[in-house]
Design brief:
The protein has one helix at residues 42-61, and strands at 2-3, 6-7, 9-15, 18-24, 31-37. By secondary structure, it is α+β, with helices and mostly antiparallel strands. The longest helix has 20 residues, at 42-61. The chain is elongated. The protein starts with a strand and ends with a helix.
Amino acid sequence: MSNDAGQYLVEFIQIGSSVKVSAVDPVTGREVSIVGPASASRNQLSSVAVKKLKYVLSKEKL
């Protein structure tokens, strides 16, 4: 996934039947996490995590 200055970092950690997905903006260092089902695709999970990160970043700009 990309942001205005480059890329977002996304990490997946499977814990049983769930996956913890962390997304980091390398420009600001802001990190968010979500937990989803292990049966979901990595694309779906990373998309949700990046959307949450964008939301958090937009709230910080206010």
